[in-house]
């Protein structure tokens, strides 16, 4: 990853450069840093992080490039499978010219796709993060481990744990009388009241999958919207199918459209059945902030 505001000129492999009167050739697909006067017909880009920006969707089929475009830069494919859909992409890096963004490096589900012209992207009306559904019942039978199952779905947004059995993850989580430190009771047996809180789940994310996570208990609606529209899922304390019940359950927040949150619920007992849906933000906050749940939440980012 390039440092913020670093001046970089991307040059195709084999391009002849003159550096202080000495000819030099770039022998890899990497970047070569030179002064503006050294290369003719090469656009100078300022490369910096784009993580502060919201997710985007691809407006139409477009080329992807190995680097921000310059003559000789290789194409790495196109975005036809994403074009005109609601499939969101992350913005990893941005390339600016005279303060204006010309290209973005985009990615999806933990995989970098390439650089795309900024004009080919649009801000979506509906945000739905890509993820892999994980049930607490099948195929692993960690029947009381709704928190860990929700964490696995959140990690899949980042491309992690895609083929890791839930049972293996739960086995490695410490047991404790304090849910801030590990699972209480038996998470493999339904109805035991096993529980684990965000602080301990954050350690699971960092130690087992090397993905950043933090306790955001008490997060506001505005903060939750910000998190999910920037590509970061949230594991939260709620209720079954986000109905206004007395159940104490964990789910994962994976999307947003005006007035509604999108969630996935791991409490699916029938093999292959996915429980997910939309809930109004007002209903969500009512359930989330109920005294028995205390607005517990974990951000995976």
TrEMBL record:
Stretches assigned to the Peptidase C39-like domain: 131-266
Record key words, sorted: Signal
Domain GW per the UniProt entry, residue ranges: 60-121
Record flagged with keyword Coiled coil: no
Pfam families assigned: GW (PF13457), Peptidase_C39_2 (PF13529)
Organism of this sequence: Acetilactobacillus jinshanensis
The protein's name in its UniProt record: Uncharacterized protein
Signal peptide: 1-24
Record InterPro entries: GW_dom, GW_dom_sf, Peptidase_C39-like
